[in-house]
Write a structure and sequence with these properties.
The structure is a homodimer of 666-residue chains. Chain A has 666 residues and is of the alpha/beta class. Chain A has 4 domains: 106 residues, Ubiquitin-like (UB roll), CATH 3.10.20.30; 89 residues, Ubiquitin-like (UB roll) (Roll); 140 residues, Nucleotidyltransferase, domain 5 (2-Layer Sandwich); 257 residues, no CATH class. Chain A has 19 helices and 31 strands. In chain A, the strands form 8 sheets. In chain A, strands 16-15-14-17-19-18 form a 6-stranded mixed β-sheet, with helices on both faces. A 6-stranded mixed β-sheet of chain A has the order 30-29-20-21-22-31, with helices on both faces. In chain A, strand 14 and strand 15 form a beta hairpin. In chain A, helix 8 crosses helix 15 and helix 8 crosses helix 16. The longest helix of chain A has 25 residues. The termini of chain A are far apart. At the A-B interface, helix 3 and helix 4 of A face helix 3 and helix 4 of B. Chains A, B: One of its GO terms (molecular function) is iron-sulfur cluster binding. Chains A, B: InterPro entries: 2Fe-2S_ferredoxin-like_sf, 2Fe-2S_ferredoxin-type, Beta-grasp_dom_sf, Corrinoid_activation_enz, Raco-like_middle, Raco-like_middle_sf, RACo_C, RACo_linker.
Chain lengths: 666, 666
């Protein structure tokens, strides 16, 4: 028998095969990424390929007509019933008859790429833990009795080379009816990360399986419902974390647990219910059955982590902030209250880095992948606690810093959550000291003639986190606030917007009759405390890493997406860097969850990486206090900020002597 | 340094050790079975040994005073606080100073033997799956943060060489408080069969752990609460299976499930509740906490098995009798409703042999161990279905036979369960044809002058299974019944106790005024059907094994304990064998459960054995019908029964021609 030259594209893998070899067999022998659910029975159509025609001079092959066999009866029946696109063939049925170049279209590849929208986003390469396997199971035989499960396992071993698969009891209950409904042909969902059967379907399962990537935040729970074959997001959504009623921030929830016996159980129950409800809602939105969700990946901070697991977080509220467990967890979905998903669905929870640096920070590290690049990168995930990661492929360090809730608009006189009506952008004219601003819900600036009309519905309700950062930075840039953070008097600054309120001055940002929005001296102090903590944490990691400059700064988190890099640097929230190298990563934690959901190798990767990350505890580092104090000035008492000052100059003002309020405070 | 000759007894293991070697170290190096929970810290006292003194001429050693070191401070403190028996030493503290013979008392051995009470019982050698390990865990360190669980695992790895232990979520919840209560010293219960942590105790755990061996029968649930260190039974008890209200026998429960949607769930719930309640009651009886039960082993027939697991048993009610799963199962106790035991307790369920031959039959095979002996042994576990095992170390075969409930007193005119007042033994004078009998609750025969007084409370209420077997056999031996099973007329037999009732004769066993207990022609027929099925099953296995004679017959089950071998053989329930080689094994299934509980190697053994057992399905074997028909005669139409007829002669009577009832029936 003659053999033929076969080249698969786009991989370029090539080999010689005898006449009559099925294309799928050739692909498997060469390690070409060609999908198959039915194992070559010609019914799933996942192995579709497209043979080329004519001369491929670069590849040194000319494909003659008839290089693949004609349609056989299986392929013909499939084409008649389901329809094959022109030129497409079933890889398991078409056989090699001559030299041929075979294109594997993206939808026939298991490891297809899913492009990420974020600017610096690396694509997700699909390699889902859960795959479907169609098998024919031997019927029971009284003369050789064995359990249906044992014969299913035999079939998976013989037909897919899968061994020692475990099965949860709730799924065992479905086994006998499913096998009989499928007439001894069933599609088995196997979680290859755990070597476990997670769902059973009679006959060939056509519909894709689904997974849920969950970012369980203290304030918001966000989730993506993903197609586990294509990686496509079928629905996204979020709900408020219902634990908020037990305490706005993490520490107040830990306190609630300490003060109220059983309080942790209450918090566990409400968050589990919320997760399950979110799964149901996203499935409804996507028009699918929540019971088709076979896997979920959850990322969260350590307190959320423990409360989700039902572990009292009390140890996380006190030094030495000991986690009950830090390793990644593989659990049944029902164990964490996901009861509307598939009965044997699994949950993967990313590892925690330290008592203050959770699985969410690990997800950020996974999504941003500083360990796979050379630039010295600082990644900051801003929230009530800021998680900070520094490093590159040589070394990674992490810490958390207690920024407090000021960056989220709490502890700010006119502060509010990011919601329609909240001031999110501010500009102040350095000459007139007059402000203009934008509110969430409108793209217009407040000096636009249509602004009033555009914001009629939302109104102007307060200042959100990014708004207060811009306001303070702009006040500093306009010479309203000095480097120590003091607001000048009307005379000093030269505007009546600086008003004496009590013993300190406030800057009037907006008024409408009775309603007035100020930036007060107290607001400035709150922001100074928060930004000093963040900066000090970053500097501490830089000290440990022995670096003075950064190549790249990534602002992660929903909040990070709205921070203006220039304003953040004027404020001295972050160390100095080239402005164009400061970027937002969007919801990097959520993206990391999606990566771990779509690619099982990402799980092993982050587990190994977390073990390598050097954990720095800010609470006990003596230099943290030093850095914190020096970072109180705006932007900083001593650091030169060369990149910042190459772009702009800050007014050299000082209101200290003249300020009565300041004097009283010393 | 000099070394010394050290001999451990009773193992006789010997070696040479340097001066100063701790006895525990020497024992471990020689592989001597010497227990330790604290790992050599001198606090658990499990490693107590007793050094010999003087000359041991057979061993070739003379032990001088001072062959072991004097009490050190640890041993002295232990002795003062807890008291050491005279001559006893702590093996981890006493060091070798000269030639010595060291006795390891039974209570210091892990693999101590537990003697079985049954006549042919082989002892249980303790090798429990669950062992206690005391560890000192590193305290959390902010500079090297890791979870408490990870540090516990590190400690188990470093101090006990235990790796990759899994922990269930409910136990993780206890971890942090237990570690702190124990000041970072904890005792860990490790299930070595599953490599899993199943309980955590602060400090050194002194009290023994407990396990529950459960024989879940269709009628009765029996359980032994066992000390997992000594194997001692702390409490035993049983309850009725509450599923009885859904159907007396297995098939009526399967029918209930088929006729009533959700009926299987009801039956699952009630049996799980009953198991949990039984655990609580046995713990209370033993004066221990049910929460100290860390393990349970369950044996049961296939229908009970599936209902316990929550699997609808419908497939077991119809050919080909397919089990959902046949392999052994390792589950969390809570998964099968055992919620009062330790939160992370485990359940081991023995493998099923076939759709009609369950984990209970596997337990019988484990307990009786025919695979470890040469005699060709027949084991019969009589119930509504009889499970039959035949073979020896060469080969084992098993089947079940549908005997129906007659042997349990059902379908018998005066039949009843074995309970006080039930006739259990019968003798009939071959000359006068007068009967005497005994009832459960009294040792007196009915012709004893004190019988009436002794049975006043219970009364005489009916005939139980063993009673009807003896009655029919005695009627055959007395010439009241012929070999075809026909009861003769008063004239034929020569006694007015043979009464015409309807168209057939009945034999009057007892009367008291209005109340009369007969053995009717219908009773004889029911017993004939049952015994024919049992005999045919046994013969079928003998055919398959190619044997004509048996070396040994074992009657298992509570009922088997009450059957008289001679009467069983006169009846032809079982094939012919030397009468003295027919023995009762008592509750062999329950004993098998206890073996699997106390010895983890027994689990691997029965799993391998069940795979090797050849399963014969009586329902489809053509020869089963032949054997069944031939076995209808009493004892048998064709089989010679040489051993039986060496002991006795049966009257050669035949009532056929004269019997009107019989004539009408043909």
């Amino acid at each position: 028998m003659t053999d033929h030259h076969v080249i698969f594209m786009p991989s370029g893998k090539r080999g010689r095969f005898l006449t009559g070899t099925p294309v799928l067999t050739a692909a498997r022998q060469l390690g070409v990424d060609l999908d198959s659910v039915c194992g070559g029975r010609g019914i799933c159509s996942k192995c579709q390929v497209q043979p080329g025609e004519g001369s491929f001079s670069k590849l040194g092959v000319t494909v003659q007509p008839g290089a693949l066999s004609d349609f056989n009866s299986v392929e013909r029946r499939y084409d008649e019933k389901r329809g094959l696109k022109p030129g497409r063939r079933l890889g398991c049925q078409a056989t090699i008859q001559g030299d041929v170049v075979i294109d594997v279209p993206a939808e026939s590849q298991v490891h297809r790429q899913v492009v990420r929208k974020a600017a610096n986003g690396i694509p997700i390469v699909m390699d889902p833990a859960t795959r479907l396997h169609f098998v024919t199971v031997e019927e029971p035989d009284m003369d050789a009795p064995s359990g249906d499960l044992e014969r299913l396992r035999d079939a998976l071993r013989a037909q897919w080379n899968l061994d020692d698969l475990s099965v949860a009891l709730p799924l065992l209950r479905q086994l006998q009816p499913v096998l009989r409904a499928g007439k001894w042909q069933v599609t088995v969902a196997v979680n290859h990360d755990e070597n476990r059967i997670t769902a059973l379907y009679p006959g060939l399962r056509e519909a894709p399986l689904l997974g849920l990537a969950i970012d369980l935040g203290s304030t918001t729970i966000a989730a993506h419902l993903c197609d586990l074959t294509t990686g496509k997001v079928r629905a996204s959504g979020g709900v408020m974390n219902p634990q908020i009623r037990f305490g706005e921030d993490l520490m107040s929830r830990v306190s609630y647990s300490m003060m109220n016996p059983g309080g942790d159980v209450e918090m566990t129950n409400v968050v589990r219910d919320a997760l399950d409800q979110l799964a149901v809602e996203l499935a409804a939105e996507a028009g699918v059955d929540a019971g088709d969700i076979v896997e979920s990946v959850i990322v969260c901070n350590p307190v959320m982590h423990h409360l989700l697991l039902g572990v009292d977080p009390v140890e996380l509220g006190q030094s030495p902030f000991a986690l009950a467990t830090s390793d990644a967890l593989r659990l049944s979905a029902s164990e964490v209250g996901l009861t509307s998903v598939a009965v044997a669905a699994r949950v993967y929870i990313l590892p925690c880095i330290a008592g203050h640096v959770g699985a969410d920070a690990a997800a950020v590290a996974l999504a941003e992948a500083p360990d796979q690049d050379d630039p010295m990168t600082l990644i900051v995930d801003v929230g009530t606690n800021a998680e900070i990661i520094l490093g590159n492929r040589e070394r990674l360090l992490a810490c958390s810093s207690p920024t407090g809730p000021a960056f989220e608009g709490a502890q700010i006189s006119a502060g509010q959550r990011a919601a329609p009506g909240a001031i999110e952008r501010v500009e102040i004219d350095p000459v007139t000291k007059e402000p203009r601003f934008r509110v969430i819900g409108s793209d217009l600036w407040s000096d636009d003639p249509s602004f009033a009309e555009a914001t009629k519905d939302s109104g102007i309700t307060g200042i959100c986190g990014s708004g207060i950062i811009e306001a303070v930075a702009e006040m500093r840039m306009a010479g309203i606030v000095d480097s120590k953070g003091l607001i000048g008097s009307p005379v000093q600054v030269g505007t009546s917007r600086c008003e004496l309120v009590g013993r300190t001055h406030s800057y009037l940002l907006w008024e409408d009759g009775e309603r007035r929005i100020h930036v007060t001296q107290g607001d400035i102090r709150a922001i100074q405390l928060a930004k000093s903590a963040l900066y000090a944490g970053a500097r501490l990691l830089m000290d440990e890493a022995g670096v003075d400059t950064l190549d790249k700064i990534t602002l992660a988190g929903a909040f990070g997406a709205h921070i203006s890099p220039k304003h953040a640097m004027v404020l001295g929230m972050i160390p100095d860097a080239e402005l164009s190298h400061i970027t937002s990563a969007g919801n990097a934690a959520g993206h990391g969850a999606r990566m771990a959901l779509c690619n099982k190798g990402a799980r092993a990767h982050i587990e190994a990486l977390v073990r390598k990350i050097e954990k720095i505890e800010t609470a006990v580092a003596p230099r943290f206090q030093e850095h914190f104090v020096a970072a109180n000035a705006i932007p900083h008492a001593t650091a030169p900020f060369p990149h910042l000052f190459a772009e702009l100059t800050l007014p050299d003002v000082s209101w200290n002597i003249a300020s009565e309020g300041r004097r009283r405070r010393r």
